[in-house]
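re the bet — no i am not wrong, look at it urself. input seq straight from the record:
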Amino acid sequence: MTQMTAVDDGGPLREFFRLLILETGNVVSIFCGSEGKRVPAHNVLALQRNEYFFVGKCIALSITYGGPGPHFFSKSIARYLCGESITSPELEVPDYEIREKIEKVSKVQTTEQLRVLLDSEELSFRFEFGFSAPNRELNLEDKSDIVKSLSFHYLVYANRAELDQLMDGLQLMQQNSTLFRPLLQLTTIPLLTTSQMLKLFKPVWSELGSNKREEKESIILN
């Protein structure tokens, strides 16, 4: 019997990391938010067990060894993990009720409307994230700062310990943020269509009537 040595080009390892990353993004005790907008969930027990660190390490290892990136973090969280500044975080707050209240603040048109809304029971939670300025001192111009403060609190500051532990596992990402950020967030690159593919290349036909000509026509036209 002839013994043959199997050749491993990294396929099994990449498949392992693909399944690992797929399952990681769906662990509800670690992450929350809709698909493509995942945010670390606040979980003290997971923090104590260093689970966020291990998740970050798994992601870094997957990318290092040719596996996939997670592609499930929200854009703001991806930027934070890569050490970049965050813009427009209000649309990515995972809690629907909080996001709805933030949207109400963003839609007020007058100073009076803003003060009435902030003075209501619905927005009483604003004191929890440190925005304690008296209503009489607030004007419509302060609206964007209020929206940003609310959004940053629920998207980043409330989960700061989890994010920082995740960053510890992702260390190498911060060194190449431009390169790695697209691997962390959901991308919307359109698929290449058949017609676009045909436009990229010009076939070199064999002599008309030859067997090779028939083979090429079969491949290209079918």
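see?? The longest strand covers residues 31-32. told u. also The domain at 11-86+159-184 is CATH 3.90.1750.10 (Hect, E3 ligase catalytic domain fold). so pay up
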